[in-house]
Every structure is written in C-alpha cells, then in structure tokens.
C-alpha cells in the first residue's frame, strides 16, 4: 500500500502545469450559464482540444492522450489549482463518451468522439420528463420506427446545457409492451433539428442553465442509436453510474476550492470564532477524504458498481457545505454576486441531479447493504 | 501508487477477525466490566501470538515494527469486536518507549509488550488525562517532557462499563527530554483509537443491517422502509470516507504531515462511529437501549471513545493550524 506518484505522473504534472500557466485566461471567463459565457467556454474547449487536453484519458485515436487514471487525477488537480475555466462539455467528455466507449459502434466512436475532444460539438443531456424524474423508467416520450431511423415525439425537461449546446442524447420509449425498463432506445440528436423546440428555463439565479425540449417527429437516423434499439436502459445506467462517480466532480476541484476557502477564512474570519474554524477544518478533512477515496478507487481492480452512489452522496453534500461555509465567512457580502455565490447556486443542484440523493441512498441500502426492496 | 491493502494485509485483518469472532468477545467485555480480566487476558495473549503487539515494537527490542498500516488494520479489528483492555495505550506506549533511545525502561518493557506479557496504561496530559484500566495494568506511565511511572487511585466508571478511568499520581522522572517521543505516542495513539472507532462503527452498521432485515413491523422487515434505509446508507457513506483517511495517515507516519493527517482521520472516525451508534440505537429501538443486549456494549463504547485521545474540536484545531 502506498500513495507514491511515479516519474510518469511527475513528468505529466510538470507538462500540464506549464501548459496551464501559459494558457489559462488571466481574467475569469463570464458565467458559462450565459450566452456570452457559453461561447467563451466553448472557445476554451477548442484551446484545450488543440493540444489534446479536452479528454486526456480517451484513447489517442479519438483525440485524447490515453493517460492512466492516476494521470487523469493529476490533470484535474493541476487544472483546478490553476483556476482554469469550468468545463462546458462534461456531458460529452464524460457521460456520452463513457457510454459510447462501452456500447457504441466503431463508426460512432470515430464520428462522435473526435469533435468532442476538439471542442467542436457541445452536448446536452435529455433524461428527465415532466412525469419522469427520479422515476426515470416512467418516461413517455416516444421513438417510432420510420424509414431508415426513428421519429422522436414528446417532451424532455431539465435538459442541462441545452439552450446553447449543439446536440443531445437521451432515452425514448420505442416499445410500450415489454415493461418499464425495456423497450427504451438510447438516441443522439441535433438540437437544431426540424421539429425540435428548445425553451430555456431560468435556474435558481435566473441564468438559463437548462431547458425544456419539445419534440414533434424529430428524425434520428439508425446510426445515431446507441446499442440495440429497445435495450437503452442498460446503456443509460452505465452512464448514470459514471455520472455519480468521480468524473463529474474530480477531487482536484474540491482541493482547489478548499484552498480558496482557507484563504478566505484567513482574510475574513474572526480568529475567536471556533465554530467557523471547525467548518473550515471539516472542509479540508472532507476534501482530503475525497482525494484519498479517488486514489483508492483507481487502485482497485474491480468495477466500483453501486459504490458510485456513495461518492455521489458524499461530493454533493460536501459541495453545499463548502459553499455555505464560504457564504457565512462573507457575512452580509454573501448574498452579493461573486464566484462563491455562483458556486453555491451550482452546488444546490448537485443533491438533485444525476439521481437524487434519496435515490442514491436507496441504491446504497439495497445494493451495498442488502436491505430488502420495498415500496418507494 | 496502490492505495489498497495488499493480499498479506487483508489476510492479517481477516485472521484477526476470525480469531475474535470465534472467541466471542462480548463475554470477555462483560467479564472485564465486572472485574474479571481473565478472558480479556486470554484474548490479549491470542492477539500477541497473532503478532499484534509486535507491530509497534522495533525489531531491536524483539518486535516487527513499527508497521503503521498493519497497526491500523489490527486496531480496526479489535474495535470491531470491542476487545477490552488498554491495547491502544499499550501500542502508544511502545511508540513512546521505542523513541526514548537506549534506556532501561525501553529495554525492560518493549520485549514484554511485543510478547503480550505487558498491559501498559498511559496518560498524556492534558489530552489523555486518565489511565485506562490502570488498576489492572502491569505498568502505568505518564509522559510529557519526561516519562514517569505513575500510581493510580480511586477510579471512575465510564459510560463504557469495560473502561475504568483512573486518575494518576506521577512518580519521579525516569527519562527526561521526552517531548518528541510523547508527541509521537499521542499521534499514534490517536490514529489507533480512530481505527478502533472505525471498526466499532462498521460492526454497529453490520449488526443493525442484520436486525433491520429480520425485525418485522407493519408486516414487513423494517429495512424495507426508506426512513430506515436512509439512516443506514448515511452511516455507510460516513464510514467509507473515513477509512481512506485512516490509511492515508498511516502512510504519513514519520512525515511532517502525520499529526495533521491523524487529526483528520480521528475527526472523521469519531463522527462516523458515533453516527453509527446513534443510528444503531434508533433502528434497534428499545432493545438497543438495554444493558443485556450485546450491541449496546458497542453503542456505549462509541460514545466513550468519541473524545478519547483528543476531542474532535482539538483535532480540528490541529488540522487548521497545519494548513
């Protein structure tokens, strides 16, 4: 058992640090939840992509660098320590890519992945529907067979990134007969398709971070179906597991935020306020726990499976606590627009999306602890 | 990097678990609480034969250590089975004595500790003020700038009936210039106490899950109800994110980060095991609140250890001071 970085990691870390030093914008980009900010972040993805840094862990043939999981963790540590911009294409680089690498055809991989790695195509997700949130298998939007493909009809909602992204992926019911988890088909479609209306929804702070999608016979060719038609649930769950795990919130992100929190505490706090001091200590302890958990995860030979739910509950609650502590340190300034406030609003969504924490606790209880399934 | 236990370490932990499960430690805990230390002493010898105490004793004194990762594995299993007696104190005393250099106190006691022949109690004022089981220990030490042997007097009952806390009357210094050795003993003791708490929390989760699978109300096992499930899931989250801190701290042994990392692990393990105890009690209901039900021994120990070897507030302050 050890926590040692090898020479390959040290060399990679030095290269990434130098690259970030040369490329990270001196001024923070505008919020990526605005049209202007989205465009700036899209441009940043292209900058990363030009040096094959938008998806470092992907195979080289698709525009990545084929780095090890440990090198990926190192990349993320350096990335957030450098104060580099938020990633506008996580739906593509992490969620969609993970699914495609497991379930996609060689043609799909060759066609879909390189434009993501190059920062050319930004993806949105289209999971939820007005009547299907936590109960995702209850979705009702349909895919109907037509010549050479499928026609999508229905309504999706809470589609993150959809107001400004290029393409989206999601599940549609292609066969109402076989039961809730079968007869679902996983498809990709352009957001400017004929028959598709995107209506942005203001987030808690008013920024259009997500959208409703109205689909009125949107055509999807067969080559944009992932996996077998009607078997989309399994493929989607492999994405969901990934979304809950480390990739959506790399440890480096929390380490950098905690460093800023400690700096804020030194600058603003009354040293005699031990209650706040304890919360700062807890933030550091939790970021250390999360970092070490990451090293543990990549050291294992087996798939973490449902344990991804432990990770999701941990990071989402930690993220909220961390930002609450910062706002409390800011006192009356906490309500004023700032990166801390933006981070706080963002953190509030974390306990809800990617499977609410209540759903995660059900998964933990049933699949990890072996408690019996029951009525929800 | 390989931040998981290797096969040998896993086997060592599994061996201790089997040994203690077969021994049925609850009976030894109750005997210890009533003043009969014989079954506890027998456990102690069995653990010594399995190599537990040698892990903290340097090779020059007949030990195999110090091996901090293996020590954490062992303390976790001893906590899991609520083993009675001052084993954390004895292991911390080995760390203290091992750092004192060539002194008669070390040469006399370290081989005996390694062999399992010495129960040592230790106070490190102010954070560790009472000598645990000092009335039955073979040696009681008090350490700060100097190391003294100490007499014990009186004694106060603990919430954990197997823990007797004794005030000490220190004698003359046996070794001086011991500040660094005392600090090292405190750090190792706090880490092993944290590992003990982690094991205790894990055992409480396991027994509570088993209970929730079988106990029926409203015609269903109570583990079907989300209110119960979510309590138990939260305990697993806390425990799973405390464990890497324990082993991360063990790997920081004898580095400048050790004190900070021990305090992080102790803070997280105190919180996780105490939450596990609260949830265990709540899910068991009234049966968990009874003296005669064995898991209540674990529940009481979890609270007793919460502030042992430094309170969470003290450890949080150490973390912040190190940032």
Overall average residue pLDDT of chain A? 94
Number of helices of chain A: 11
Largest sheet of chain B: 4 strands, mixed
Radius of gyration of chain B, Cα only, in angstroms?
Answer: 19 Å
- The count of β-strands of chain A is 8
CATH classification, class level of the domain at 182-322 in chain B: Mainly Alpha
Tell me which oligomeric state these chains represent. Answer: heterodimer
Which CATH architecture of the domain at 182-322 in chain B would you pick? Answer: Up-down Bundle
Instruction: Provide the helix percentage of chain A.
Output: 40-55%
Distance between the termini of chain A: 41 Å
Task: Tell me how many strands of chain B there are.
Answer: 9
Q: Let me know the average pLDDT of chain B.
A: 96
Identify the strand order in the major beta sheet of chain B: 1-3-4-7
The domain count of chain A comes to 3
Strand content of chain B: 5-15%
CATH fold-level label of the domain at 182-322 in chain B: Butyryl-CoA Dehydrogenase, subunit A, domain 3
Can you give a write-up of this model?
The complex is a heterodimer of chains A (376) and B (323). Chain A has 376 residues and is an alpha+beta fold. Chain A has helices spanning 7-23, 35-50, 69-81, 90-103, 106-117, 232-244, 251-268, 274-299, 308-330, 339-350, 357-368; strands at 123-126, 142-146, 149-160, 167-173, 184-190, 196-201, 210-221, 225-226. Chain A has three domains: 7-88 and 110-117, Acyl-CoA dehydrogenase/oxidase, N-terminal domain (Butyryl-Coa Dehydrogenase, subunit A, domain 1, Orthogonal Bundle); 123-236, Butyryl-CoA Dehydrogenase, subunit A, domain 2; 245-368, Butyryl-CoA Dehydrogenase, subunit A, domain 3 (Up-down Bundle). Chain A contains eleven helices and eight strands. In chain A, the strands form two sheets. Chain A has a four-stranded mixed sheet. In chain A, α3 packs parallel to α7 and α7 runs antiparallel to α8 (274-299). Chain A is globular, with a radius of gyration of 21 Å. Chain B has 323 residues and is α+β, with helices and mostly antiparallel strands. Chain B has a domain at 182-322: Butyryl-CoA Dehydrogenase, subunit A, domain 3 (Up-down Bundle). Chain B is 58% helix and 11% strand. Chains A and B meet through α8, α9 and α11 of A and α7, β9, α8, α9 and α11 of B.
């Amino acid at each position: 058992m050890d926590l040692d970085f090898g020479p390959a990691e040290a060399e990679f870390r030095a290269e990434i640090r130098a690259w970030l030093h040369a490329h990270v914008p001196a001024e923070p980009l505008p919020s990526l939840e605005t049209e202007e900010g989205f465009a700036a972040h899209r441009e940043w993805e292209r900058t990363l992509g030009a040096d094959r840094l938008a998806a470092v862990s992907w195979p080289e043939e698709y525009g990545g660098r084929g780095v090890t999981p440990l090198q990926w963790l190192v990349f993320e540590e350096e990335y957030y320590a450098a104060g580099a911009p938020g990633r506008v294409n996580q739906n593509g680089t992490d969620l969609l890519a993970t699914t495609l690498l497991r379930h996609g055809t060689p043609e799909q991989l060759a066609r879909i992945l390189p434009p993501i790695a190059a920062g050319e195509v930004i993806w949105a997700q289209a999971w939820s529907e007005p009547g299907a949130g936590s109960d995702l298998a209850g979705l009702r939007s349909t895919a109907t067979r037509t010549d050479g493909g499928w026609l999508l009809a229905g309504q999706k909602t809470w589609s993150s990134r959809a107001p400004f992204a290029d393409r989206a992926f999601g599940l549609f019911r292609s066969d109402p007969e076989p039961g809730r988890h079968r007869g679902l088909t996983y498809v990709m479609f352009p957001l400017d398709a004929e028959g598709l209306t995107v209506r942005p929804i203001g987030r808690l702070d008013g920024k259009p971070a997500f959208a409703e999608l109205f689909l009125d016979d949107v055509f999807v060719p067969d080559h944009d179906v992932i996996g077998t038609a009607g078997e989309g649930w399994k493929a989607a769950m492999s994405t969901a597991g990934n979304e809950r795990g480390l990739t959506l919130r790399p440890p480096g992100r929390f380490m950098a935020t905690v460093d800023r929190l400690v700096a804020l505490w030194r600058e603003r706090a009354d040293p005699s306020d031990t209650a706040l001091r304890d919360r700062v200590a807890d933030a550091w302890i939790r970021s250390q726990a999360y970092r070490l958990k990451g090293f543990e995860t990549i050291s294992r030979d087996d798939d973490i499976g449902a344990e991804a739910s432990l990770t999701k509950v941990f990071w989402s609650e930690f993220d909220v606590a961390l930002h609450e502590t910062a706002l409390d340190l800011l006192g009356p300034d906490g309500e004023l627009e700032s990166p801390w406030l933006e981070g706080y609003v963002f953190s509030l969504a974390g306990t809800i999306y990617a499977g609410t924490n209540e759903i995660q606790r059900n998964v933990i209880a049933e699949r990890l602890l072996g408690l019996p399934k029951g009525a929800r | 990097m390989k931040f998981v236990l290797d096969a040998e370490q896993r086997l060592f932990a599994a061996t201790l678990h089997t040994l203690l499960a077969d021994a049925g430690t609850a009976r030894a805990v109750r005997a210890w609480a009533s003043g009969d230390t014989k079954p506890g002493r027998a456990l102690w010898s069995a653990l010594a034969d399995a190599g537990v105490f040698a892990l903290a004793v340097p090779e020059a004194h007949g030990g195999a250590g110090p091996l901090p990762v293996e020590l954490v594995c062992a303390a976790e299993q001893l906590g899991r089975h609520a083993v009675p007696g001052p084993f954390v104190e004895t292991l911390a005393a080995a760390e203290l004595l091992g750092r004192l250099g060539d002194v008669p106190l070390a040469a006399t006691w370290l081989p005996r500790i390694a062999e399992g022949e010495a129960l040592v109690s230790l106070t490190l004022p102010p954070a560790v003020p009472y000598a645990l089981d000092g009335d039955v220990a073979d040696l009681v030490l008090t350490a700060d700038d100097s190391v003294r042997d100490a007499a014990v007097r009186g004694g106060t009952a603990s919430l954990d009936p197997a823990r007797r806390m004794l005030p000490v009357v220190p004698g003359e210094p046996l070794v001086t210039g011991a500040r660094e050795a005392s600090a090292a003993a405190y750090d190792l003791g706090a880490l092993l106490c944290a590992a003990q708490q982690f094991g205790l929390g894990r055992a409480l989760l396991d027994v509570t899950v088993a209970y929730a699978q079988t106990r029926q109300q409203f015609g269903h096992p109570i583990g079907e109800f989300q209110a119960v499930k979510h309590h138990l899931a939260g305990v697993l989250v806390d425990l799973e994110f405390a464990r890497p801190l324990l082993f991360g701290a063990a790997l920081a042994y004898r580095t400048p980060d050790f004190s900070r990392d021990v305090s992080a692990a102790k803070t997280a393990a105190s919180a996780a095991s105490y939450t596990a105890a609260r949830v265990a009690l709540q899910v068991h209901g009234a049966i968990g609140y009874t003296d005669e039900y064995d898991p209540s021994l674990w529940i009481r120990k979890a609270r007793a250890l919460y502030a042992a070897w430094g309170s969470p507030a003290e450890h949080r302050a150490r973390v912040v001071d190190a940032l």
